[in-house]
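Bench log, entry 3. Co-assembly request; chain sequences pasted below exactly as received.
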Amino acid sequence: MAFVTPPLVDVQPPKWVKPSFGAKVKSATPGLIVVVACLYVAVVILLPAVSVVVQAFAKGVGPFLKNFESEDLRSALRLTLITACIAVPANTVFGLAAATAIARKKFKGKALLLSVIDLPFSISPVVVGLMLVLLYSPTHGLLAGVVNSLGWKIIFSTPGIVLATIIVTFPFMAREVIPLLEEEGWEQEEAAKTLGASDWQVFWKVTLPSVRWAALYGLILTTARALGEFGAVSVVSGNIASQTQTLPLFVEDAYKQYNTELAFGAALVLGGVAVVSLLLKLLVERLLEQDKNARSLESETL
Amino acid sequence: MTAVLPRQRRPKRFPVVKLPSWSWRVTWLYLGLVLFLPLGGMLLKAAGVGPSGFWEAATSPEAVATYKVSFGLAFLASIVNGVFGLVIAWALIRCRFPGQKLLDALIDLPFALPTAVAGLALTAVYSQEGWLGGPLYNLFGIKVAFTSLGVAIAMVFISLPFVVRTVEPVLRALEKEQEEAAWCLGASKGQTFWRVVLPQLTPAILAGVAQGYSRAVGEYGSVVMISSNVPFKDLITPTLIVQKLEEYDINGATVIGTVMLLFSLVSLLAINLIQVWGQRYQGN
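Structure output for the full assembly:
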């Protein structure tokens, strides 16, 4: 006796059968999830972001542009850019060096070292500022003697601001590049080396191109954070208008002084930078993905 | 030097190429100057205070009140984000709807937006003349900005992305077959979620909550703007450190700073442990 399996047919209830209440609830669940998710994000994130734009242009475009005639705002913008121009390259060099040094080495305490590199992410920025004050303050710092005898001015001055920014932003680069280098093998570098390339050549022509998008991603994150850092900088800067005030500090100070328009004008500049960095990030993410796909294809064909 | 080793003496797992030694040196020099020196400096200063002085400053009523505000409200905020973060991650991975890309991009905004701008924006929205603060005050008599509720909202804002971003990859990697198997075995949708899906997501959710908590506890820029910074009411610990520094109470600032540092070390350890625990699932 042979068993004949009936063909699989998607059995649907006849059209005239009304779905039960339970089925209605079930089919509504995904919709509910989407609505809750969107509402939550709209209230928590979108609304405040939109309010900055609206408030900045509350009196029209003319008054908004007039904000930029303020000498304090301009000098704050200048200091912020100078800080980023020093901190970002310094951290890029460190990030790439740390990645090439750590990623492919196996040693005891590697996980610990990686956690230590991540530490600035979990320390409160205020504590970072405090550490710098305790070290370099000319009156009660541990290195006060050295700082004073050399005549350096670190706290309440640009070097302190730059240092604080560096500490807060240095993990980004290493963090993005290390996983990628870990994933890749050594073969390419090995080949370059056996063909007679020097260490530098290997780094510039093999290692760096292979991590270029990850490095760019790290660079974007570093820059965005360096331009916007508040806590660490506010502790070491002394917040003197036109001298040691970065743009984020200016935003807070202007708001406290009831210069609402100036505050929102400056905030819009910073917010614009943040949005641009987000868009760039999305773009680079796509490039990273493409790169990964291309690589996996390559390794399949090999 | 390195390339001329005879072939049979080459160790199995190590390639001929040696790491350029400069990168190793740069890493340690930089870490030393930028991280270890300031860390060591603060610990040295804290050690100079002495155990009894340390204990007294760390547990002064003023400090304990700020711990309650900071750690308590951050806990509340990270729990709220744990629930909603899961919902958002689910919507992003398992549902298709218009505006999904926008939602995805918006999640990262709290990471990208400078905290001072976030503080300004939240204060504007939740003050008594604000878009949400106004109706809340007029209809329910709830004050948000310049109270501890405002502080909690700022903490929710800055810690929102963590849970979403840790849950997303795990949810995406989850095999649909498991849910189908559970369904075939007669489990309801609810049972499938609670017994099959959620246990696998738990480590990721916990890791995200812990990261968000750690961030919310340390947050300064946005909270200082929306808080009234009144001691024993809504003053957070980082602001207390700043105030102590401004009053030249260096020892007090050092001690409370060290407490915060110890907390972030512990939370870093906890997050690592949770991630190790979570990899159990990925290994199978």
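Residues 21-56 of chain A form one domain. Chain A touches chain B through 92 residues (CB under 8 Å).
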